[in-house]
Amino acid sequence: MKRFVLTLTMAVLAMSMSTSLYAYDCEVDGIFYYRISATDLEVAYKVFSDNNRTAYTGSVTIPATVTYNGKTFNVTSIGEYAFRDCNSLSSVNIPSSVKTIKNYAFYNCSSLSSLNIPAGVSTFGAGVFEGCSSLMSVEIPSGMTAIETETFFGCAALKSVVIPDGVKSIAAGAFAYCTSLNSIYCLSATAPSCEANAFDKVDLTWCTIYVPASSAASYKEGKVWKDFFIEEFSGKLEDVKDRQ
Fold it and tell me: Is 237 exposed, middle or buried (0-12, 13-18, 19+ CB in 10 A)?
């Protein structure tokens, strides 16, 4: 009997936590938001009960500002799980007002093939694009200093990625199971620190790391990086785009 009561109590608590975690404050033009300050909104997960699959479909443009109840708010972040499991979502346009993309924001968006990430985004949470199996290329914003745990885990169609010179560390599983990855452009002259399994299941035989001229030694001496083919290039972003 005590075990039953304990189980029931835990279930009620879990339901309560789920409701508070995934409730949104308002909906404007088909996009759901939390209010996070007197002036700012965050793109929100719709509801827990329907697994969010129908919340966002096709091409979505997030506005920089939203007017609700006669007041205009800035959209400054994308919340945890905001687009989770939206497997009919194909593209997302993110405004320059967004500075933060939180944990698992695009988790398992299996049809997401295109999105722009503004240069002003300075923080990714863990697993932001985990399971985005149709995403083919990514340019990580220049303000980023770290790539968190499992950020691109399971992005099986990802072929190329640009890592800006501000990135100092790459966490566990960040690019694990990116089985199509063949080009990594690292703009830093000094190899970022890298966890041993950051590129787990990436085919090192065919993946080349392009590094700024005269920087090859730093990568050849770096843990994980030394196992890739390393080639020097100008180190300029415009040169990367010419190659892609």
Answer: middle
Residues 9 and 102: their CA atoms lie apart, in Å, by 30
Residue type, 34: Y
* pLDDT, tens digit, 9 for 90 and up, residues 188-241: 999 999 999 999 999 988 999 999 999 999 999 988 999 999 999 886 766 665
Strand order in the sheet with 89-93: 58-61, 89-93, 114-116
Query: Which residue matches tokens 């194909």?
Result: 90
> What distance in Å separates the CA atoms of residue 95 and residue 215, rounded to the nearest whole number?
34
Residue keyed to tokens 């968006």: 109
> 116: which 2 tokens?
């722009």
pTM for the whole structure: 0.84
Indicate the fold that domain 122-244 takes in CATH.
3.80.10
Which ranges of the chain does DSSP label H, i.e. alpha helix? 2-22, 216-220, 237-243
Q: Could you state, in order of their start, the residue ranges of all structural domains in the chain? A: 122-244
Half-sphere exposure of 157 (CA within 13 A, CB side): 14
Residue 92 one-letter amino acid: V
8 Å CB contact between 188 and 212: yes
Tokens of 55: 């919340």
